[in-house]
């Protein structure tokens, strides 16, 4: 169960019994379905980029989708769709926070 205070959830491409979830592009497909749900709503061309609230990524070699709580606040049914996708496919879900990479320091001359 996902706590009501979770800031982000990570839907991982690993089933609860440890198998890799297929198809291999599942994360991009799920995030693509969610592309219209974004701050300010959909706009012409928004279908060409992922929503900042639902981002596919790879973490330690495992495909994941990071779903931000802002999606739940703005569109509860879209949040439920993502959570139910994970549950229906028996995928592992973790509550976490995506930390941006540290900036790369400039090279010294």
UniProtKB/TrEMBL annotation:
Q: Which Gene3D superfamilies match?
A: Uncharacterised protein PF12112 family, DUF3579 (3.30.70.2340)
* Entries under InterPro entries matching the protein: DUF3579
* Tree of life domain: Bacteria
Recorded protein name is: DUF3579 domain-containing protein
Organism in which the protein naturally occurs: Variovorax gossypii
Its taxonomic path starts at:
Bacteria, Pseudomonadati, Pseudomonadota, Betaproteobacteria, Burkholderiales
